[in-house]
Amino acid sequence: MAIISLVLICLVLIVVAIFLITSLTGAPYVPTLGKDFDREIDKLYKFSRKDLVLDLGAGDGIVLDIVSKRGAKAVGIELNPILATIIRFRFRNNPRVTAVCKNFYRYQFPDETTVIYAFAVGNHIEPIYRKIKAEATRLGKPLYFISNAFNIKELKPEKKVWTWYLYKIKPEKN
Ligand SMILES: C[S@@+](CC[C@H](N)C(=O)[O-])C[C@H]1O[C@@H](n2cnc3c(N)ncnc32)[C@H](O)[C@@H]1O
Predict the structure, then answer these.
(1) Which residues line ligand 1 (CB under 6 A)?
(2) Which of 4, 6, 78, 101 is deepest in the core (most CB within 10 A)?
(3) According to the model, what pLDDT value does residue 101 have?
């Protein structure tokens, strides 16, 4: 009995440690309010089959679910292996949604990427902006960026709906 209790305590501590450590690299796990996002998002951006959406720090995949129901392909980049596994399990029968367990700063965007979503904390918005700008430059095309709750100081949004800012991030000129 004592050994079982010890194993359970160790497991709980490992899970807590994983959530704590991953939250330090971008944002803690706080999901987007799915009902609000589902109701409001069409006013911000019309997702379609032409889109490949990346959720940088995808949590449990709520955003992936909502955009894939509008026809988009969606990739969740999630550092927390527990959450990445939940996404893979949740969308095991949906080929339009995949998950990559990786630090999004080290992730190379696929060529077909059109939209990036992030719900990060304030001090990560500028580094995320620079990452998207670098990827837009590498891919040679503009990318749309939807940021939940935090705005980019140096860039004017194309639109704002509720807590979501829509930006068009252009490639750097040579
Ligand atoms: C605020 S939650 C947002 C979850 C989801 N995007 C949503 O809107 O529901 C942020 C997520 O980013 C993940 N995360 C934090 N830093 C990361 C990084 N550097 N690379 C990948 N995922 C990261 C966290 O584990 C957490 O699940």
Answers:
(1) 22-23, 25-27, 29-32, 55, 57-59, 62-63, 77-80, 83, 103-105, 119, 148
(2) 78
(3) 98
Task: State the pLDDT at residue 12.
Answer: 87
- Residue 41 near residue 117, CB atoms below 8 Å: no
Domains of the chain, first to last:
2-169 (3.40.50.150)
- What kind and span of H or E run contains 161? strand 159-161
Mean pLDDT of successive 10-residue stretches along the chain, which has 174 residues: 85 84 81 96 98 98 98 97 98 98 97 97 93 98 97 96 98 88
Hey, what long-range contacts does 56-59 have (CB within 8 A, 24 or more apart)?
Answer: 56/26, 56/104, 56/107, 56/116, 56/117, 56/118, 56/120, 56/128, 57/26, 57/27, 57/104, 57/118, 57/119, 57/120, 58/83, 58/84, 58/87, 58/99, 59/29, 59/30, 59/31, 59/32, 59/83, 59/119
Query: Among 21, 78, 117, 130, which is best to mutate for testing ligand 1, by the most ligand atoms less than 8 A from CB?
Result: 78
- Model confidence, pTM: 0.95
